Amino acid sequence: MIEVLNILFQQDVFSTLHSHPLTAHLVDQKNFRARMMNTFSDVCLLKCLSVLLKKEWMPNYDEKIMHSGESPAEHVLKRNEACAMTSLFRNYAWGGTVLGPISSWSPHLATHVDVLLSSKSPMTLWFSPTYSNIYMYNDAYIPLIGAAHPHLFGQISSDMLKMPLFAEFYKHVSNVITTGCSLMLKDYFFPYNRQTRILEAYFMLDMTPACIEGGEIVATSINLLEVTNRVIGDRQFDTLHQLARVIALPMSISSLSYNNNNNNNDDDKSSSSNIDDFYMQQVCTEVGIVLAANKYEFPFAMIYLHNTKKEQFEFASCIGIPPDHPAVPRNMPIKGQANNLWRVSHVFSTKEMVVINNISKGPFKFPGGAWQEFTDQAAVLPIVSHTEPDVILGVLIVGMNQCRDFDDNYRNFLELVGKQIAVHLIRAKSHAD
User: Fold this and answer.
1) What is the mean predicted confidence (pLDDT) over 60-66?
2) pTM of the predicted model, to two decimals?
3) CA-to-CA distance for 164 and 153, rounded, in angstroms?
4) pLDDT tens digit string along 263-302?
5) How many whole angstroms separate alpha carbon 6 and alpha carbon 4?
6) Residues 283-288: contacts with CB within 8 Å, 24+ apart?
7) What confidence tens digit (pLDDT) does each residue in 72-109 have?
C-alpha cells in the first residue's frame, strides 16, 4: 500500500491526477499527501487509481466501449452484473431525473457507479439538491437501511430528508459539496434499520466530493467502515475500569455517612437501616454511580443483598428507576410467590443469569436509558462469591440495551460486572469484620 501511495506522489502522476476532472479537486487540497498516507480506506484513493489505470494501462478503454456500442454506464453495469443493485440501477426510471437515461451518462459518472458497485463495504453516492438529492448505494449498504430498501434508492423525498437521522447526515453531505473538502467522521451513530427494531451501529464515514464533468462538484461519495464492536467494547471497558476503582470507604468516613443517613433519612425508603452490613450497602451505592454513567448498557439497575438469616434479598440501591417504583420491592423472599417478576428463587437455586422478556408489556413500564423507547428486557444475575462459589451475596437486576442483540459478548460483559461487584462486596464485608 505504501508503494502505491508513493507512486501517487510522483510529479508526473500528480500532474495526471490534477488534470483529470474526476480527481482534480482531490489533489488540489493542501493536505492531500498527509490525508492519503493516513487514510488507506479513503474513496479518493480508489478514484485516483481508477484514473491512473485507465490512462497508463488501459489507454483505449473509452474507445473500446464506443466501438462495442455500449455507453460507459452500460459497460459498468454489465461488468458488475453479479451485484444485486445492478438490476435496480438498470431498471430505475432515470429518464425522468436530471441525470437522464443511463445511455447518456458521462464516463465520470460511470466511474463513480463502478467504484460504488464494486466496493465490498457500505457505500453511497448522494447528489446535491440541484440533482434532486438522488441517492445511490451498493449491496453492502442494504442491511443498514432494512425496510427502506429499495424505496430509498433514487430521488429522496422531502419527507425523508426531514427525518432526524437523515437530516443530520445531510448536513455533512451538503458541507462537502459546498466546500469541496473531504470530511472524516469517526464513531458516527448510524443504526441498522430492522423491520422490528433499530440496532445500534457506529461507522467511520469517509466523505469525499464527487464531480461528473467539467470539474463541478455535484455529489458526495460516502464510504462507511463499521466500528460498532470497538465503540461498544470501549464503552464496556470504561465501565469495568470504573468498577475496578470502587473500594469500601474508610471506617471513619463510612460511620459519619451512616450516622447522617440515620439522622436525616429515617423514613427514606432507600435507607440502609435494614441492611446488616453498612459497608456492603455503601459499595452498592458506589457501584450504582458507575452503572448510571453507562445509560446504554444499563437503562436501569437494582442491587439486592442476601440476608441469610431472613432468607430474602433486601434492597440496597438502584439507578435509572425510582426506588418507590412498584417493581422495586423492599424485600424479595427466596422462597414464595412474591418474586415472580424477577425470578430470584430460580437465580438463587441455579446460580445462573436469567433473561426476562416483555417486562414493559405488563402493568409496569421501565425506562429505556439512552434510548427513547421503554426497556422490554432485563437480566437477573447472581452475585456469587469468588472465594466461595456456593455463597450468593446478592442479585443484580439490569435493564438491557434494546438496540443490541443479546449475544455472547453482551452476556460475558454482564457476568464480568457481577464478578466485579462480588469482589468489592467481599472486601467490604472483610472491612466490616
Assistant:
1) 47
2) 0.74
3) 19
4) 444 444 444 444 446 778 888 999 999 999 999 999 999 9
5) 5
6) 283/246, 283/248, 283/421, 283/424, 283/425, 283/427, 283/428, 284/316, 284/317, 284/394, 284/421, 284/425, 285/316, 285/317, 286/246, 287/243, 287/246, 287/317, 287/421, 287/424, 288/317, 288/318, 288/319
7) 889 899 989 999 999 999 999 999 999 999 999 988 89
